Amino acid sequence: MGFFDLKAICAVCDGEAGLHRYRIANKEWVCPTCYKKAGSSLKKFIAKATADEIREAIAKTSNNSTELDHFKATKKIGTLVEFDDYQKKWLVLSEILGRRNRSIVYRYEDILDFELLDDGESIASGGQGRAPINGGYFSHTGTMAGGLTGKRRTRGVCNSLQIKVTMNDINDPVVYIHFLKNAKSKRDEMVYRSLFEQAQECVSTFQVICDRENNQKPLTETAFSVADEIKKFKELLDDGIITEEEFHKKKLELLR
């Protein structure tokens, strides 16, 4: 009995897997429809994916479609990157015509670090918990000044200019933004200078986002911690374990 004579059930949807099915972990099968719904995040290692992981990927893809519908760009950089600062989300546009129909929506808080790569060489980097990029500083427009020029390569032609963003996502930990990909461009020409300025603006924007996230997290955690402590002492007061004077004294100590 050959492969095409065997009937198989999709481990995800319980429907017939069909002839063009895919083998997954635990010697199970997934149908082409579920495979497609799972999106691109699992396709590289579909043979090792479990049915639960595929269900999770399908739910994530469906949720991303909803987020795309509600995404409202407040900042655009060329035809490559968009930011929704109200919802604190961002996305990379399709390299073809700058469309967002297949884009993945990412959250600001999941950005761990990033690098600007010129022909594979890191010329600027930053991220959460890190100092401003290569000693550079931000102007009032949010664009980084200084720190980049000295690190740029001196070779006359550039083949690749991209930003590598590391995300807090075990299934999709790296996002690339390609400003120049497999195309030679002279560094003294307008095309390269324009793309480099866009990359510089994008790097600066990421650092501003990370700085804001760094500033917000400790404050939020502290606020919750103090509120919880005050609540505990209020309960002790209500139970008659401490006096009102002791409660107010402890409250003032916590709020300082």
Automatic annotation (TrEMBL):
UniProt-listed Pfam families: DUF4428, SHOCT
Residues of the DUF4428 domain: 9-56
Highest rank taxon of the organism: Bacteria
Domain (SHOCT) ranges: 228-251
Stated name of the protein: SHOCT domain-containing protein
Organism encoding this protein: Shouchella lehensis G1
